[in-house]
Amino acid sequence: MEKILTSLRAYTTVKYSNKRKNRSCVTCGNIATTEALFDVGEGIIVIEKYCDICAKQVQ
Ligand SMILES: [Zn+2]
């Protein structure tokens, strides 16, 4: 399934304070600071979280 990066946005811990277990970067496991929104087709948006370093690599 092809993923198309649609946007990056800051990942705030306040907004997601009830989901702290999901704060890790999906690539390296560091604390996530950025959310990347991917369009995977059929109107489905997948959100993955990245740290600063990995966020630069997905752009
Ligand atoms: Zn990372």
Brief rundown of the structure:
The chain has one helix spanning 52-58; strands at residues 4-10, 34-39, 45-50. It is mainly beta and 59 residues long.
The proportion of strand residues reads: 25-35%
Which of globular, elongated, flat, extended, rod-shaped describes the shape?
elongated
**Element order, helices and strands?**
EEEH
Sheet with most strands: 3 strands, antiparallel
- Strand tally: 3
Return the domain count.
1
Helix-and-strand structural type: mainly beta
* Rg, Å, rounded: 11 Å
Spatial strand sequence of the major β-sheet: 1-2-3
Low-confidence segments, given as residue ranges, are none
* Tally of helical segments: 1
Helix content: 10-25%
Plain-language structure description:
The chain has 59 residues and is mainly beta. It has one domain. It has one helix and three strands; from the N terminus they run βββα. It has a three-stranded antiparallel β-sheet. The longest helix has 7 residues. The radius of gyration is 11 Å and the shape is elongated. The relative contact order is 0.31. It binds zinc ion. The site of zinc ion has 8 residues, from helix 1. Zinc ion (ZN) binds next to helix 1.
Topology summary:
Layout: E1 4-10, E2 34-39, E3 45-50, H1 52-58
Antiparallel strand pairs: 1-2, 2-3
Bound molecules: zinc ion.
Zinc ion (ZN) binds at residues 25, 27-28, 30, 50-51, 53-54.
List its traits.
3 strands, mainly beta, 3-stranded antiparallel β-sheet, binds zinc ion, 32% strand, 59 residues, 1 helix
